[in-house]
Design brief:
Blueprint: H1 4-18, E1 31-36, E2 39-43, E3 49-52, H2 67-89, E4 96-104, H3 107-110, E5 123-131, H4 137-150, H5 152-159
Length: about 170
């Protein structure tokens, strides 16, 4: 039986290999608007949507997850996706994955109380629980490293992507 993930990856790799000039593109836009207080709705061009909120301790209502939680969730889901894609690419059977992501932060940064403390996480931990038929711990560890290294979200966190700020009037 053909694995649809493996088939799709092979097709995508072949296409990008044949069209390297089209491999680079602008990712889809995410637009955030304040709903009320610190509750924010983020929408994408194809109907994607999510809502965030901040904890009550900083003026939010805590009704929705914070933006930081969505960042950790994005890393976790991206690493799980890449691990699954790699396992399919390698032809592994019986593959399963769970990914935990947490981080350490210091609120002095987000509150602007100490200029030497970053506003974002000071560190991040990505924990993977993996299993596959006939694959030992060395193979699982190799796949885990590959998944983290090839996940665009964890790469952006590790690499520190340049950010350009543009401001315009409404």
């Amino acid at each position: 039986m053909t694995n649809p993930i493996r088939t799709a990856m092979e097709a995508a790799s072949a296409w990008v290999g044949d069209h390297p000039d089209e491999a680079r593109y602008t990712d889809s836009l995410a637009t955030a608007r304040v709903v009320e207080g610190l509750r924010i709705r983020v929408e994408g061009p194809n109907g994607e949507a999510l809502e965030t909120d901040m904890p009550a301790g900083v003026g939010g209502s805590g009704v929705h997850p914070s933006p930081g939680w969505f960042m950790r969730a994005a890393v976790a889901s991206c690493v799980a996706s890449l691990a699954t894609m790699r396992a399919a690419q390698l032809g592994w059977t019986g593959f399963s994955v769970e990914v935990d992501v947490d981080s350490e932060s210091d609120d002095r940064g987000i509150l602007g109380l100490d200029a030497s403390v970053p506003a974002g996480p000071l560190s991040m931990r990505i924990g993977l629980r993996l299993a596959a038929d006939g694959i030992g711990l060395d193979g699982l560890e190799e796949l885990a490293v590959w998944a983290v290294d090839h996940c665009p979200v964890s790469d952006a966190v590790k690499r520190g992507v340049p950010v350009h700020v543009e401001v315009s009037g409404r």
